[in-house]
Amino acid sequence: MSSATKEWARPDRPRTPGWNGELLHSGFQKACESRSWTAGYRSLDMDRIACDTVPLSAPLPDGLRGTFYRNGPARHERGGQRYGHQWDGDGMLQRFRFTDRGVSHTGQYIHTEKYIAEAARGRFLVSAFGTHVPGSDAAPDPIDTANAANISVLHFAGELLVLWEPGSAHVIDAESLATLGVKVWHPSLAGRPFSAHPRVEPDGTLWNFGVNPFSGELTLYCIAPSGELRRSHVVFVSQLPPIHDFAVTDNHLVFLLAPLLLSEDRLEAGASFAEACRWVPQLGMRVLTIDKRDWSERYYDLESGCLFHVANAWEDGHGVIRLHYMRADNPISMLAGWSVMRGEYRHQGGAHLTELVLDPMRGVAKQTTAGALEAEFPAIEGSEVGRAYTRVMCLERTPSRKADVPGYDQVATIDVSSGYRQEFRYGDDWLVEEHIFADNPGSTRSRWILGTALDLRAEQSVVSVFDADHLGDGPVTQARLTHALPLGLHGTFQSLRSDA
């Protein structure tokens, strides 16, 4: 364990020195002069950016028509100050349209209550995940006053939604990208957290959750394909950690609970939300399964570990649940979110693809490492959510990547039964972002893989299209912008045949 991780893990650790946004701003600007990877963490100052025609290396494949959306933090600076963590910036929705004419791009900041207020004042007003802004509450009430809408995007039931973590989704006009307001699934659920990682089953049913570590409430959502709330439920969980992702099966919701606990004393002392979390590995990891049919709960115990993203899960006729997720020994990746905002980085290890088996008859949980390389951002095909699945796609960090350069340089697909894999390595001078399967309506198997990456030599963002069955052959075409976009987080593809 690194010294930084040990310090963060100490239960009695005092809060880190107060945030100095001016110092962060000047330090990062200095780092930009010599570290090309900082291009991915620069702030985009314009409210909207657009390009009607993005140059292509080859024509778009026949049948690939629709819209590729991505979301992520893009405004890292205001008024000469810089956020302390890479996940703090206001969300910008990126839209890449694939048509017979080629590819066009539009980027638009999401006009949340927070964004509008801070734009009017020209400075940061509210605290974020990893930055405590003096004079503001790290957990304001209502929480949506701090909503950055910067994690993910979902097209569901005819609406385009951008997602945060502690608060509401926002509705976006799919044509203009104007922000229409917060999404309220039911008056009784207004303002409750709605996770950035909902799961949409093949029949169109959406399952999601929301976490409130202060109250221990885990809110569960079941939403019909029409967009109407079918039912909701609140589970009270002792020592409830922040949860970023989960899985569904035919009969269960599955949550992996890392030993990461929120200290309200640290919050009251002036720490940010992230700084107020304590890593308590002696508690181990718990797995919570909730039966969809009656909300009954069951717990399993695992050795200590941390996770960020889950690939998928399914259960067999005996009720045995099999799940793949990205497991790390500790939350060191969160620490990297602070360092890159200073323009500094020293790699110290990350997550690996891991298979988890839950046996309800014996009441035991077992897990094994399924991937040799460090990896993140797992993706599966939409037709396999909660079902037996064939392959997992993910980003990987190859051993040759320099320790002073963050991120991933390779995308891979892995057959979870045979271990057969294909990969495409972008190279040393690239920062590779999440790749997804472009699901085809009416088909159970995706034909294409889409993903963005930042070419550090050219300082240009690139969208790549791969044949999903021949990833190792490299992109069939690439759309190259003339500039670099801030690194995003999650995206989705909406086929033209089902666009709203």
Give the helix/strand layout.
Layout: H1 3-9, H2 21-32, E1 48-54, E2 66-75, E3 77-78, E4 81-82, E5 90-99, E6 102-109, H3 113-121, E7 152-156, E8 159-163, E9 170-172, E10 179-182, E11 199-200, E12 206-212, E13 217-223, E14 229-236, E15 247-248, E16 252-257, E17 260-262, H4 264-268, E18 277-279, E19 285-291, E20 297-302, E21 306-315, E22 321-328, H5 332-339, E23 352-359, E24 364-369, E25 374-379, E26 391-397, E27 410-415, E28 421-425, E29 430-438, E30 448-455, E31 460-467, E32 477-480, E33 490-495
Antiparallel strand pairs: 1-6, 2-5, 2-33, 3-4, 5-6, 7-8, 8-9, 9-10, 11-12, 12-13, 13-14, 15-16, 16-19, 17-18, 19-20, 21-22, 22-23, 23-24, 25-26, 26-27, 27-28, 29-30, 30-31, 31-32
Fill in the keyword field for this structure.
33 strands; disordered N terminus; 8% helix; mainly beta; Neuraminidase; four-stranded antiparallel sheet; 500 residues; five-stranded antiparallel sheet
Q: Outline of this structure?
A:
By secondary structure, this protein is mainly β.
Description:
The chain has 500 residues and is mainly beta. The protein contains five helices and 33 strands. It has a single domain (3-498), classed as 6 Propeller (Neuraminidase). It is 8% helix and 40% strand. β3 and β4 form a beta hairpin. Residues 1-16 have low confidence and may be disordered.
Overall body shape: globular
Q: How large is the count of helical segments?
A: 5
Please state roughly what percent of the residues sit in beta strands, choosing from under 5%, 5-15%, 15-25%, 25-35%, 35-45% or over 45%. 35-45%
Describe the largest sheet.
5 strands, antiparallel
Low-confidence stretches: 1-16
Got a strand count?
33
Mean pLDDT: 93
Helix content: under 10%
At the first level of CATH, the class is Mainly Beta
Task: Give the number of domains.
Answer: 1
Oligomer: single chain
CATH superfamily: TolB, C-terminal domain
Structural Rg: 21 Å
Annotated CATH topology: Neuraminidase
Structural class: mainly beta
- Note the gap between the termini: 49 Å
